[in-house]
Each structure stands twice: as structure tokens, then as C-alpha cells.
Amino acid sequence: MNHPKQDQHKIPQVYLKKFGYVDTNMQWKVTVSRRGEAFTRQKSIKSFTAVTNVFDIESYDPIIRRIFEKLNCDLETGYHDIINDLDTTGELTDKSYAFLLQLVANLITRSDYWRDLTLSLLNSPGKARFLQFITGHHCQNEAEYNTIDQQSFYRVLNESSPGDALNRAMLYFMDHLMLRLWNYEIVIIRSQDGKEWWTSTNPVVAHNKIEGMEIFAKESEFYFPISPTYLAYLHFKGSDDQTNPLRALATNQIYEADDAQNAALQQLILENPSDCVIIAGEFRCRIE
User: Do β-strands 205-207 and 276-279 pair in parallel, antiparallel, or remain unpaired?
Assistant: First the structure.
């Protein structure tokens, strides 16, 4: 089926602009360092990570067809409120706290790293088990769960080709992730002056400690550079693993990074699997 063409961004433009700059031609640009290259590139924010119809879902219903992209756009509307809360009051309102949790889940499901991993699972012998894992919470009772292979929402995914099922699966993946993140605490770490946070094309750093078919466990931690100034650390207070000193900090508060934290957190961002690192501001470098 031919869908109307639409450029859809894997990384939101509103987010990239916080890390970007306006050039002499009054165009928004962002500094990008591609993995394996010894120089930086200046990329147009309008086109960077934009792919035609990348989030479209195969459907005769136009609402279903663009439901993923609509969700992306709806969540992006709360981004400036998150920044404004932190700038003006030093904490998040309940609304911005909820938006931030959803934005973290949304950016995970939009990134190539997690999409490629999901596609590989849909192409694997474990496809049925994976689909059961990400959709099981939609069952109304144990009897439905035990016959999940007969449920329409499961069958649509299981009977579709991996490529056609991917975007539907990512929405269920996001929904599954949100069930976990609603129980997470958020700590905000402010960058040091002159040492702004960077980000990447896989902006959420996920530290997993998993077993079996688990995707995320209660010990999992997430790091998200909200902007060059603020980084969100997300964790579950009831985790058995309390070794990370950031877990001891009060939720919904801003803490200044010290030298060791600034270096360690920036290293996490740099090492997170992604095609490109995004450097705050205009930065030109070439290593001969």
C-alpha cells in the first residue's frame, strides 16, 4: 500500500535544537561525530535522522497508519515544559515528571539500536515468546493469557512479516516499558560549566541486569541527557542492587555534577551503542 510521504524524525527536532545552533544562513544545525570518523560534521536538524514514513504502520485505517508518529509528536509537546520546570523551580511538576518518563520510553522505541534488536527477535525462533512478553499485559485474566495465541492483538503481530510487524511491536514494547518506568525515581544531574552533556542517536543509556526473556529488570538503570544542562538518572527504589551512589539521592531534585561524575556520565553517553554522538553547540574538529 502506498502511504502519503512524510519525513519522520527518529530524534525529535525540538530535542536536537537544545544541542544545536543557528548558522550564518539562519539554519538550525547540530554537530555530529560519526563512529569511526576522525572529524565532526555539521548536519541540518531538519533532515538529520529524518526518514520517510519510518514509523508508519501497514493498515487501511489512516488513523492506525500514523498512530506511532502522532504519539511521537504528542510527547514532544511536553519537552519545553520539562526544561522550563527545571530552570524556574528546580524540580518537575507531576505533569512534566510523567512526560519525562514517557519521553524516555518513546526515544528508546524510536532508536535504531532497539528497533534493530526487536527486528532480530521478530526474525528469530523466539518470536512467539517475545511477542507474548511485550503484549501479555493486555490480557484481561489468566485464561486470556494462557490462550494469547488466539487473541487478535497477538495474532496480528505473529502473522505479519517481521518488517510489517516492527512498528506495531515497538508500540507494545513502549507500553510494556512504561509499566516499569511508572515505578521509577528520577534524579536530575546538572552539568558543570563549560562541560555540557552530549547525547547520541540512541539518547537513552540503559544499564540492564537481566535474566531469561526479560528486557528490563528492577535493577535496570537509565540515563537520559535531557539537554546540555540536565541529565536524568532513572532507577527503581526497590532494586536489590543499591551500589550506585546516585540511587541514594532524593528524587525530583537537581544535583550538581562533580568532576568524577561529569567524566563518568559523559563516558556512558559516548559508549552507548549508536551511529553518531551529538556534541552540544558548534564544534569543528579534524584529527589528521
Answer: unpaired
